[in-house]
Amino acid sequence: MPRMSRLPDPAxxxxxxxxxxxxxxxxxxxxxxxxxxxxxxxFERPVxxxxxxxxxxxxxxxxxxxxPPATPAGTPAAAVAVGAERFQLTAEAQALRRSGAGxxxxxxxxxxxxxxxxxxxxxxxxxxxxxxxxxGCLRARLTPVPEVEIDLxxxxxxxxxxxxxxxxxxxxxxxxYFDHPALGALVRVDSLAAPAAGTPAEEGQGAPAxxxxxxxxxxxxxxxxxxxQGTTASPGAPEAPPPPPKKPFRW
Length: 251
Description:
Helix content is 10%, strand content 30%. The protein is mostly beta strands. It has one domain. A hairpin with a 4-residue loop joins strand 8 and strand 9.
């Protein structure tokens, strides 16, 4: 009598599939990241004699790891530089140059990068041009709106140092104004992701903002100038998300 082979137990593959499902569920999901354009405009202000420089020789610790935005033709990098024709803060830069109030643009740059919700992105170098007297870096992450961390230092002609180190959440299409007695920085973040079908575009997003630059910086001990309408500004990280984008602002 021929020997009959044993049929496979149907419970075995089911148990294996169940085990695979449990293991797959325990693995971390792929980091979600969205493409953004980040633009930074930094300018110097006449130094208030009552505002002492930093005596500790503060140098941004991020400089050892920061890299300038790369060009598309170079080695693939997290931050890819874009041309001036893609800048959204051109009107602000022109207003600063025409102000006649001792305001001078130190750095104006923009780049594209993927911003993740699981960890801060790489530090991107800002400034460093000969004669500008500015060096620093910026990095971003999602919280779920973009949050940027900026660390700058300005060195004047006498060698005095003026650091600016802040964190702020910036809703796409908005501009954040970082204020300081010796320098100021405008940071704009724009989403590059295609809007979902049926989702209307936010009003005013992507339009360059008109701006009127203050004639003189505020004296030390007085209230800082109000932030431009449509921007957020604070000395530190805000406690709540910024308001939704508004129409072009004026200082």
